[in-house]
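It is worth pausing here to work through a concrete case rather than discussing structure prediction in the abstract. The textbook approach is simple: state the sequence, then state the predicted structure, then interpret. We follow exactly that order.
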Amino acid sequence: MHETQAKTAQYVLNTYARAPFVLTHGAGMYVYDSEGRCYLDFTSGISVNALGHADPAITAAVAEQIGQLSHICNLYYSAPQADLAERLCTLSFADKVYFANSGTEAVEAAIKFARKYALDTHGPGKTGIVSFTGGFHGRTAGALALTPREKYQAPFRPLMPGVTHAPFNDSAAAEAAIGPDTCAVFVEPVQGEGGIYPASAEFLQTLRAACDRVGALLVFDEIQCGMGRTGTLWAYKQTGVMPDMMTVAKALGGGLPIGATLLSDRVAAVMHPGEHGSTFAGGPVICRVADLVLQRVSDPAMLAHINEMGALLVERLQELNSPHIREVRGRGLMVGVEFDSEVAPLIQAGYRYGLLLINAGPNVLRLLPPLIVGEAHIEEFVNKLQVTLSEAVLS
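Step two, the predicted structure:
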């Protein structure tokens, strides 16, 4: 056992099943372990490393900014935060941004903003929240209540009350669940951990109409599917439906932790100084990096590249000769390969052939390569996956 593995086992709370090696460095599409082995990364650290590993521009921005101003807290103004907020609003529906440190924190903020909006606008009692089966919104108390997974929720009940779970992509069920007591509806335009399932345009249109009917806020969780991942900067742009709030994180920081809750002026007007906050959120270093990542990812040439590479990846996956593959689905470079059995053996076998893979539920291989992936990387990936499929024992 490597020294790092031994120390981790002894001192780090065991909440993750880790791969059997120690990663030491990366470059572009690849990472390397302590034994010098190379791995093609098709996980992006769960949709985080949009520009790959050790991007020179990110490295330079971090070094320059941390040498000028690293942390000041939100009692003071800083240009990087203002610049990032301006860019996020300019490139989305939003008028205002609240900065957090993670996607879960962005969701928690959206919960609070929605309940405050309902209280100020409609009075007491309008506190219900609707979310959907297969969804994932985080693991803190409020976000976990929105995430209808028995294995995640059961050990930690009672959770935040007032949450109703309705079937995903079922318009009639959503209509029935959204009522006068509903203050907000949370939904992923493309479910990530739920198995890479896009919400239909009809379903999202139904949610928009139902929210408008009862005075509730529609909240899109684009923590995983946003930031160009699906081929448009924001997944909602493919649906014709505009939310009242949107949560963003993961790829926004390009490898550093950040979350953001984007909201309209109508919602923002109910929040006042002292009603929510964070010591670390929106610091100069992370905002400087996030602004750089957002510039790069929102470039039309980058978005065209994502669509081209996503189409190629799906095409090549559909050509794979495996009786175990049931379906290949997704948008852009957010692709799920559903198998007729659990994919854990496939992920383990992939390590031997230099592949980093993750799942989305027991039977779905979740492919989230850095957005800089090229044709040669896709060919390398598919060739290695074919060999891995021939070795892995899938029952």
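Step three, interpretation. The chain has a mean pLDDT of 97. The radius of gyration is 21 Å.
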